[in-house]
Amino acid sequence: MASAENGDPVNNYGTGYARLYSGKTRKLLYNFPAPQEGDHFGVCVNSAGDVDADGHADFIGGDPGDMTGSPKRGSFRCYSGKDGKQLLSSL
Prior knowledge:
- The chain has strands at residues 2-4, 17-21, 28-33, 45-49, 58-63, 75-79, 86-89.
- By secondary structure, it is an all-beta fold.
- The strands form two sheets. It has a four-stranded antiparallel sheet, with no helix packed on it.
- The two termini are 23 Å apart.
């Protein structure tokens, strides 16, 4: 797992991302760009355990600049380690 809260110069997201890599092959499995400009998604990422009980570890990413609702409220998103689908969100 890798992240950068201040942008992705390759894909020009400019507001953060999280990436999940295979521990076995080091191949990029999933790329998760910031949901919206200014979010700083990826300021923190961590394992969330097996949230959906599918036998694969899932992960959670922080989004402190999320301005959905009240200004600079912040949020989190939890993604499946199996298929990359969003499982949960604080929104």
